[in-house]
Amino acid sequence: MSDLHKKLKALRREQKIDLAAIEKRTKINLEYLKAIESGNFEVLPSTYIRLFLKAYCVEIGADPVDALRQMNILLGAEEPEAISVAAEETLVVENGELDDGTEPIAMDHPPHEIRSDWLKGAAMIVLLIFSIYIVKQIVSEQPPQTSGNNAVVESTVEPITDFELINDYILDKTNTGSLEVNPPYQAKIVSQKAQVWFRTETDSALPIENILHSGQQDNFRFVERFDILINPTNNVALYWSGQLVTNLESTLHPAKITLDGSAKTVTVQHYVPQN
Predict the structure, then answer these.
(1) 137 and 184: one domain?
(2) How many domains does the chain have?
């Protein structure tokens, strides 16, 4: 029986990635993630089983194409290739016992298998992007909500996962610079006029997500590196140890910022939606 789920779970633990963090980034129910790592693929919704497994593999750094192929074999959707006599002989070890034939997560495949898996994966990505586009169109057409005294209620910003950033956006520009700052380092995020969503990674700590309302701020201390993903950037100011990060431009789209304490440099990557 395939031990695909055991290998995936071992890889996640090796990467020191928490299941709760994967749930936040991919929006996949925690019970479904546990089912993947338990090998209970039949628990997953049949419509999304391939998409869930692929997103999980991307998060932990596994080969999604190979994992999908092994899952298909496990579920009987794809028959494993017959092993030739010569190939069987290579499974015999020095003590005369047969190797268990367990496959690693990542391996080379025949060209026709790679094309087939990529076509299936591409179709799922196109379907996902189209679904997200439809949802965003519906949300954008809704009028702003008002309270009883006719004051406009602040709209809610949407979090962005790494999966959405890769598939829905493209890198528009990269701004770099340096600041004369001294340790101990502190980063401060200030929401100026409206809500802003962000996710931070400080040194080796787990990611933290938050939404700041107008006028709110959040502070973080770090030793060597501070990474933050902000959406949008038009209502936010970022400070490093009291100095304004001027490389961060005001846009309606997300940006990734890295504060490198060892080099005292700032790198800002601005993203725009794909056409």
Answers:
(1) no
(2) 2
Strands 225-231 and 265-273: unpaired
Looking at per-residue pLDDT, the higher value among 7 and 143 belongs to: 7
Residues 111 and 193 in one domain: no
Say yes or no: 16 and 137 in one domain.
yes
pTM recorded for the entire structure? 0.46
Q: 3-state SS of 200-214?
A: EEECCCCCEEEEECC
Cα distance between residue 136 and residue 122, in whole Å? 21
Residues 6+ apart with CB under 8 A from 124: 50, 51, 54
Residue 214 has pLDDT above 90, yes or no: no
Residue 262 burial (CB < 10 Å; 0-12/13-18/19+)?
A: exposed
Does the residue 151 lie in any domain? no
Structural domain boundaries, residue 221: 162-273
Contact (Cβ atoms closer than 8 angstroms) between residue 162 and residue 185 = no
CATH number, domain of 167, equals 2.60.40
- Is a pLDDT exceeding 90 seen at residue 28? yes
- CA 64, CA 226: separation in Å to the nearest integer? 29
C-alpha closest to that of 226 among 192, 173, 183: 183
Give a yes or no: residue 237 inside a domain.
Answer: yes
Say if 185 falls within a structural domain: yes
